[in-house]
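Last lecture ended with a question: if I hand you only a sequence, what can you say about the shape of the protein? Today we answer it with a concrete record. The protein is DUF1152 domain-containing protein. Below, first the input exactly as provided, then the predicted structure, then a couple of comments.
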Amino acid sequence: MIVMTSLHSNPLFTRLADAERILVAGAGGGFDIYSGLPLALSLLHQGKQVYLANLSFSALDGLPIDDWVAPDLAAVTPDSALHQSYFPERTLAQWLRQHGYPSTVYAFPQTGVRPLRAAYQALIELRCVDAVVLVDGGTDILMRGDEAGLGTPEEDLTSVAALAALDGIPTRLVVSVGFGVDAYHGVNHTQVLENIAALERDGAYLGAFSIPRATREGALYLDAVTHAQLHTPEYPSIVNGSIAAAVRGSFGDVRFTDRTRGSELFVNPLMSLYFAFDLPGLAARCLYLDRIEDTHLMRQVHSRIAEFRESIVTRPPRRFPH
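The predicted structure:
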């Protein structure tokens, strides 16, 4: 169902207007939660209670038992696992504390759909959450399964599947930022646009808006990304580095880490756009979500998606018209 709004009203923030306690969660692991930081800060500045969470690639097994608030749900603070060099959730918690924001970042280990859903349910009940925004740094969360390339959808779609069945949450949304950054993972962005058009026809696309560097949230996001790059120099985020470069107005093959040596980036203004969607509507278009529904391990998700891909004829890639 299409909900009519005014042109001067942002549909994403309109959907969140009545929510008081909002969970902003990184869908795909790594630094994905950073991609949601401008949105989370904007909601905080509006007086909302905002909680941050992330599907984590960090070594959570080393956390003390007191940091685990529920099975598969850890509360990461600025002082968590200081011996670990790679820990995006802790690095973000440290930045948040420096700037006077609530500094707990919840973390989910890599699991299948069933335990991740239970962990989300536990966090939602713990914090009385009434809206969830799932954030993907990139666009592979928008892949329905029959595209020429899916990028790295396993973690993203595990997160989507986990939340799609939690009907008790009145507002569940997805935002994607970093359009074009998944090209080095084989995503065809003409097919991304084709998928967004289909979601619009279904009434599940909530429009797009930019992260201007002249806003308070945009400036803070750039500061947070710089802080993360300084504190994780051996493995900085290519996705957020690209988005931050786009927010600054950079263009083309921008160099901000040796990790991109040998590849050509195409940083451009579209990378700084948030594309927003209704989560149940997006989930309904995924062709293999039912196949991963009963998974308990991430490797099961990988194998189920691979089996699905072997059983279908994929759509051929399309080029942008010149």
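Comments.
1. The first strand starts at residue 21 and ends at 26.
2. The first helix runs from residue 11 to 15.
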